[in-house]
Every structure is written in C-alpha cells, then in structure tokens.
Predict the 3D structure of the following.
Amino acid sequence: MREYISVNEYLAQLRADERVALFRSRLEGRLKQVRYVAHRVEFCCPLHDDSSPSARMFFAPGPGGEPPMTFKCFACGSMDFVSFWAKVFSCSSREAAAEIFPSGGRSSSSRGAKPPMPTQLRELETVRGTSISMVRKLWRLAYDAATDDGDDADLVIADWAEGRGFFDALCNDLCGILRREHLDVVGIPEDVRRWFLGHYRLILPLFDVGSGELVNVQALRVSGDDGPKVLFPRRATGADSVRVSGSVFANKPARRLLLQPAESPGGWVVVTEGGTDSLAVGQALFDLPVIGVPGASCAARAVGEWCRGRKVLLALDSDETGIAAARSMASAVDKAGGFAEAIRYPGEAAGDACDLLDRGFKLGDIRQWMLDAIAALEPRAVEELARV
Ligand SMILES: [Zn+2]
C-alpha cells in the first residue's frame, strides 16, 4: 500500500543537510547571488526585479510553525517550498510536487541513516590545562563559524537546533560551532580534538560575574546518547586558568549588565540553569538580561554586583537540587542588595525549559510564561517590556 504525504511533510522528514542538498542541486543554478549564511540561504528574488539579495529560505521549520524551506522575500512576502518551486519553474503545484518527491509522492524511507556515532572517548592521557586566552581564541573561532557560511557538517547541529527552536541562538552569539578546521589552529588543546570527535561541537561562552569578561567555554554535545551532555576544558594552574565557579552564561542584555552593572539600575534579570536552558531562555527573552548558572552547585557564586537594586527571577531546574540552589541563591541575592523570586516550571514532568520544549512547547510559550510570572509580581515591568 502506498501512503501519500504532503510536500511539507516530506520536507519535514528530511534531515537539514538533505534539504540543503535539494536546494543546491535543483534551485541554486537558477538563482543569482546565492549565499549560505548559518542555516539559511539568501539570494536575489527570482519573482521580482531584484539586484541585491532580498529573498531567503530557512532550512528549518519557522518559529511560527512555518514548514521547512519556507521562502521569504521582503517584497513578495512568503510562501511554502512547493509554491515557490511552481513559480520558479512556471508549473502547477502538482507538477512541482512530483518533481520534488524522489518517488512521485510516495512516502518512503527517504530519511537517510544518521551518521554513525564514534564510541565515547574517555579517560585518555593527561593533557596540559587550558588558559583563558586559549578559550577566548576558541570562542572567537566558534562564533565566526556560526555566523559565517555554513559547511555541511554544521547541519548536524542545525538538525538538533531546529528541533528545539534554537536556530536564532546560533546567529545571536549565544553559541558557536566547533569545526574540523579549528583543530588545525596552533595550540588548540588535545581536549578540543576529543570534543570534536565526540560531537561536542556547540560552544557556549561563560563570563566572569565580576568583570563580565569571557573566562571559559562549555562544549555541548548535539548527537549521540552516551556519556555526559556537556564538557569543560581541563583546568590549568595559574592566574590565566579557566574556571567554572563564578562564571555564567549570558545573553546580550546580560553581557551588557555584567560589564556595566551600574549603567541602568533596576529592572528584571532572569536566572536559568545549564547550557541548553541558557540557550532556550536567553533566546526566548532576547530583550531581557538572562543569566545562566552552569550548574546548581554554582548558583550562589553567580551572584555579583549585577543584582544590586535589581529584581531577579530564579528559573532554575524544578528538581530537588534546583530548588535548594534557588533558595541559597535567593538569600545571596538578598545580601547583595537585590530582590529574588523563584518560580517552578509548569507541569508535572517539567524539570526545566528544555523539558517543556521536548514536550512540544515553543520558545514563544516559554517567553509568555516567564513574562506572565514577572507580570504577576510587577505588572508595570511587563508593560515597559512590551514598549521596547
Ligand atoms: Zn521578491
């Protein structure tokens, strides 16, 4: 029996690299000034007289539920892939669909096999520790890789990110990408080689709570099921050594706050726990400072000058350690001259923001839920946010 699926369902079943391959092989040649940027492609719109690229296509599903490969043009508006195809080739949607499907509309096991996971590497020979200057170099490379034209290997990360709605986090300097070519950089520690082989390829920067300077990075694994989710570079001894305690993840507004805590007094700061939650919440609340503690045990040490006179919404994990950490952090915020309020993620099973995303919630839902929590404490604060 043949099962029929729509083009959009078919596209959703493909991996991100397969979507890029489809675009490259069938459409790229018909378009002008094609440029691959992070996880989208930009080009001159073929549907209107366009001399500089005003059209783009995102390979992932859109944040508003748009199907993958939705076309957007500043002048012509947006349409799904099959409509765009039909316009480019001047054919009917039915003909376009028949062209796009490799087997004429039949649902098949077209979803290619995932690349094999290397076996988990562990406990290798002792290596020299890593300095802050080296992690800064690494972050700069990873940051450039996320904003630069993507290579195909990055699409493993794209696949992972699109499932969670993190696409914009890659373009918003919340995280960077470790690439094979980075391993050739002089002085790159052996650890980083193992990160790459073990699929720890998402690089998140950590900033000192006192100075706001980058003092460490965390590597997040984006595929495979074994072993820990995150890794830190090995510590060295000496003044230039990296550290975890007293360092935090921070989105753009939070980085400004850490660098100049006295600049704009008052206002709300949201605190979250762990790298992936920092990506999710940091992106969802892009216009509000979001500080992420690397682990529950570091929560109290994350308190600094930044919380003086500010209101702090503690959205740490809803498990026992998270609740205990929120309690100790609340009292530290209080001592530092701030006001802290802890909230718990909604729902029985929800431990953190990523649990909510796994259960089908979107970043927009997390944003709304957090803003509602703030509004319940101070209605005026959210009105001000809405004005921004
Ligand atoms: Zn156009």
Remarks:
- The pocket of zinc ion is lined by residues 45, 47-48, 50, 55, 73, 75-76 (CB under 6 Å).
